[in-house]
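Section 5.1 Outputs to date
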Amino acid sequence: MTLKLWGRASSGNVQKALWALDELGLAYGHIEAGGAHGIVNDARYRAMNPNGLVPTLEEDGFVLWESNAILRYLAYAHGGPLALPEAPRARALIDQWLDWQATTFTPAMRDAFLQLVRVAPDKRDAGVIEASRAGSERCAALLDRHLADTAHVAGEHFTIADIAVGLAANRWFQLPLEREERPNIRRWLGTLAQRPAATAVLSLPLT
């Protein structure tokens, strides 16, 4: 079996795949791609991923892109600590939180991230930052209320939903802006941080 992952480690979406691969203890090659690393516009890469985005996973000739699809595939194909429950409703809850991360939480904080991390201070738009901050706070409040009654986002056990939502929440807490304290999210992130496979990605700075 040959596994390769393309994508710069600073990308939150690539971090999902890195965390999942390490949870599974799989041997894989990691090729930094995107941003300053280039590669994503090369013809060979575009043949694998026509979007020119990261991450892209290749396993024995099978190619897959979209970070949450990669999480699902690794859970389906390799099981182990990422094994999905058999009950349809339990699986549906995992899908619910994967979709919420991708369609609601991460988009809400995207502008704040770009403005505060990628834009020079004298060119930042305070209104854009505030709108993103407010939207992200609504998401964080929802997540914190949910985690008051459950150990992990999709139930009592760790799943791939914790990887996706955990990385988004960790990024939110790293942004240099004012926010409400969320004790239940902090408790949950502390639990995730104890997982050896999470250590490398959760400690990466925002770039």
